[in-house]
């Protein structure tokens, strides 16, 4: 019985560690290769004040000025698929079917590109204040873990999500 508890605890610890990643940051490629330095990430509003929260933008450094999706980049989408296979597909499907988290089909028509990037790079502050994410949490019962995506990986995943939704 003692060995079984130790084994279960070890497996749980391994699972928790494997859901993370290192926190690398680098520049974000865009389809036209013009990128300016992004402002520092924003913190969640103090005291959970949702009045300051913009549900179309989310919380973070990404906005319309630093996420350019005017052109589809197939190479970037292919890299995003590779990242998603490692960090996302254990919880998400490409269809609208829920696995652990919601399916990805239609996500790029439901949310702004910068909202998606803010959420996937730092989900906790947004889950804490976004009413739609809180409703999703009630359905999924599991908070999306921070996968430690660097800026490039986040942009590549966004491009893969766009491809999944029909961008060409």
Could you please describe the fold and organization of this structure?
With 168 residues, this protein is mostly helical. It has a single domain, classed as Cytochrome c-like domain (Cytochrome Bc1 Complex, Chain D, domain 2). It is 45% helix and 0% strand. The chain contains seven helices and no strands. It has helices at 2-18, 74-87, 107-110, 113-121, 123-129, 131-140, 151-164. Helix 4 crosses helix 5 (123-129). The protein is globular. Mean pLDDT is 80; it is low at 11-50.
Low-confidence stretches: 11-50
Helix proportion? 40-55%
* Residue share in β-strands: under 5%
Task: Count the DSSP helices.
Answer: 7
Short description:
The chain has 168 residues and is mostly helical. It has seven helices and no strands. The protein has one domain (23-164): Cytochrome c-like domain (Cytochrome Bc1 Complex, Chain D, domain 2), CATH 1.10.760.10.
SSE layout and pairing:
Layout: H1 2-18, H2 74-87, H3 107-110, H4 113-121, H5 123-129, H6 131-140, H7 151-164
Helix pairs in contact: 2-7, 4-5, 4-7, 5-6
Question: Which key features would you list for this structure?
Answer:
single chain, about 170 residues, about 0% strand
